[in-house]
Design brief:
The protein is α/β, with parallel strands linked by helices. It is built from 14 helices and 18 strands. 34% of the residues lie in helices and 20% in strands. It is elongated. The strands form four sheets. The protein has a six-stranded parallel beta sheet, with helices on both faces.
């Protein structure tokens, strides 16, 4: 629902009842993810999209019906119609399930407070029961990032605490997720499926080096929704006038700024300085922090010299395996703008644990399960990393055949994959790609 927070916020201020249709389950190549919503008010005004146009008409009519009847929430399933391409269905071949319910701001005041927080850019999560006992279906509870007491209710009892705890954890992680809860006789006896809608603060992109490439990268980073900081120790170059798309420009030594600023698992660190006196202390620190991405610009020769200096500074092979250098995907980029696209493409691929290959070179569904999907318990790259006790990203390096990991690390990851349940190469589970141990070996030998 937070994809249409602006309009819903206005409708709540006007105490205007509306029907909310939310994607609660997706299979195959459905165009939009779980949590995406459409809303229709009593005057027939509609906002949002859940399928890029495929099933909007049918969903609109269901919303109108729910508003008119003022009845219980309804679930509707939409799939591919191969008999009639114009029939109600997803011509992309995917399947989605939608929950349609009537929302009344007059009786759900906490929803208005949550939407107010989302519209102003604050962190907030709205937990919505999308499967479970009829009496609880559609109930909502809001959790705020500023420490306020959770608002709303699921059952008025122990389930409220269980749902609030899970919603709070997802809010801290900054991701929307569909999660199972319940089945515990002491705390949450009913089994529920809860969709947690999260409006998190923007992830951070920290760009070190006030160069032309940084100007282009800050523009693309902001377009992608990052809060962009450009940092350089040289005040003559680190100016707001040179980087109009950055949210902030900082004059400081890069490693000192990184040591003092807030980072999390979504933070991308992009080192564009090309200067060892900046790069080495900065990368030494960055590779020891729980950030999501660390990349450094430079030629192959610069990269080799950088690795030597970092090893001399005590950086381990496992830490170096996290370093994306030379930075970016192989797009043949020449200009600063093309290079910015190359870098951000790698950041996206790294966050989603994907290969970065052209879709035309891959088999299987285009839209893989998101990192929070249950995945049927299949082991993923993250699972393998935990089994092998290696740093985040090291597992992906091994799977992709990188030579920048130690022999012991490679053996540990291969053993972890071998211990996991056998899967076909390229199968996605609850958070990414899993290859067989044999596939890893063949990747390594191909290098």
């Amino acid at each position: 629902m937070l994809n249409i927070a602006d309009t819903l916020h206005r409708w709540c201020r006007e105490t205007r009842p509306f029907a909310l249709a939310t994607v609660v389950d997706v299979h195959g190549s459905a165009p939009l993810p779980v949590g995406t919503s459409v809303a229709v008010d009593e005057d027939g005004n509609a906002v949002g999209s859940i399928s890029g146009g495929c099933v909007e008409g049918a969903v609109y009519e269901l919303c109108r019906q729910v508003l008119h009847d003022q009845g219980a929430p309804q679930r509707a399933w939409f799939g591919y119609s191969d008999d009639d391409a114009f029939a109600v269905g997803l011509t992309c071949g995917g399947e989605l399930e939608v929950l349609i319910q009537r929302m009344d701001p007059a009786t759900q005041s906490h929803l208005a407070a949550a939407l107010t927080e989302a519209v102003r850019g604050g962190p907030v999560a709205v937990a919505q029961v999308v499967d479970g006992p009829d009496a609880l279906l559609g109930s909502t509870l809001s959790v705020f990032g500023d420490g306020r007491v959770p608002d709303g209710t699921v059952d008025g009892g122990p389930m409220d605490r269980a749902v609030a705890d899970r919603a709070g954890a997802l809010l801290r992680a900054g991701r929307t997720a569909l999660v199972p809860l319940g089945g515990d006789a002491d705390t949450c006896p009913e089994q529920l499926s809860v969709l947690v809608h999260v409006a998190a603060t923007r992830p951070r992109m920290l760009i070190f080096g006030a160069v032309d490439f940084a100007a282009a990268l800050s523009q693309v980073g902001r377009f992608l929704g990052y809060h962009v900081t450009v940092c350089d120790a040289r005040p003559v170059f680190a100016t707001a006038a040179r980087f109009p798309h950055a949210d902030e420009v900082v004059v400081d030594w890069p490693h000192r700024y990184l040591d003092q600023t807030h980072i999390d698992a979504r933070t991308a660190v992009c080192v564009l300085t090309h200067d060892a006196k900046f790069d080495i202390p900065l990368l030494r620190l960055a590779l020891d922090l729980p950030v999501g991405y660390v990349g450094a610009m430079g030629s192959r020769r610069t990269h080799d010299e950088r690795l030597r200096r970092l090893r001399d500074a005590g950086v381990t092979d496992e830490q170096l395996a996290r370093l994306r250098s030379p930075i970016g995907l192989d797009l043949g980029a020449r200009t600063p703008e093309e290079t910015a696209v190359s870098i951000t493409a790698e950041i996206i691929a790294d966050a989603n644990q994907t290969s970065g290959l052209p879709l035309s070179h891959r088999m299987g569904p285009i839209h893989r399960p998101a990192a929070h999907d249950p995945g049927g318990g299949r082991p993923t790259l993250e699972d393998v990393a935990a089994r092998a006790d290696v740093a985040r990203g090291t597992d992906s390096r091994v799977v992709n055949g990188s030579s920048r990991v130690s022999g012991a690390t490679r053996v540990a990851v291969q053993a972890a994959v071998a211990d996991a349940e056998p899967l076909e190469p390229g199968v996605a589970g609850s958070g990414g790609r899993v290859l067989s141990a044999g596939s890893i070996v063949s990747h390594s030998c191909a290098r």
